[in-house]
Write a structure and sequence with these properties.
By secondary structure, the chain is mainly α. The protein is built from seven helices and no strands.
């Protein structure tokens, strides 16, 4: 029970984020208006996605050094969770764009970069399904996963800042922290980042436990 304290923390933080994010006052900014509340959901999902994808790379590196099915499962399931959060992040971003920019999608460097990054990780899933040999699949997937992370992070966080963008913090467009100097949003935003990140690890843990059970059943069948 003591080892599950962080799960209770994740639930409390996400409940707090949802309630406070919808009810607490927010800055009255032109164009954004009430849609700024999406900051508590859209952006923390990207944080959680980045951290869980980095965790996946960590297990991929460990697998290449010490190949075991368990490490492959940990890497794979972490990547899957990151992809799920990335897709939801794109969806919430698209909804936000609809109510602020007037369209579901624009030719914005950050949106296009995020979409390309998700396609790169989608190719990771396709790559895994194309191999029959388990060791070969795990080894090549681990290598691809490392390069996918190295390619995706600049698309998410670096290249959009080098060009003009509608997103805050890029192309002369000030970030939220620059014109939101009160503590109201920070009181919700930072717990939201922690909560969504913990949820990502929770989902990954459940998926890994199920995969480990399937592995044990498979090994017993071979014995």
């Amino acid at each position: 029970m003591k080892t599950n304290w962080w799960k209770a923390g994740a639930v409390l933080l996400l409940v707090y984020t949802t309630i406070a994010g919808l009810l607490m006052p927010v800055p009255r900014l032109p164009i954004l208006n009430e849609s700024i509340r999406n900051l508590y959901f859209h952006v923390p999902m990207w944080f959680g996605m980045t951290i869980i994808l980095a965790t996946s790379v960590y297990y991929s590196i460990r697998y290449l050094r010490t190949p075991t099915p368990q490490l492959d499962i940990l890497s794979h399931e972490s990547a899957k969770t990151g992809i799920y959060m990335g897709i939801v992040g794109l969806a919430t971003g698209s909804i936000w764009a609809r109510y602020t920019w007037g369209t579901w999608w624009t030719n914005d460097p950050k949106l296009n970069g995020a979409a390309i990054a998700m396609l790169i990780y989608g190719a990771y899933l396709v790559l895994r399904s194309s191999f029959q040999d388990e060791q070969q699949r795990a080894r090549i997937s681990a290598i691809y996963n490392i390069f996918a992370f190295a390619a995706a992070m600049p698309l998410f966080f670096i290249l959009p800042r080098l060009t003009d963008s509608l997103h805050p913090g890029a192309g002369g467009n000030p970030a939220f922290a620059k014109y939101d100097l009160d503590s109201n949003m920070r009181m919700v935003f930072y717990p939201a980042v922690i909560g969504w990140t913990l949820l990502a690890f929770w989902v990954t843990q459940v998926a890994c436990r199920f995969a480990f059970l399937k592995l044990k059943v498979y090994e017993k069948q071979l014995a």
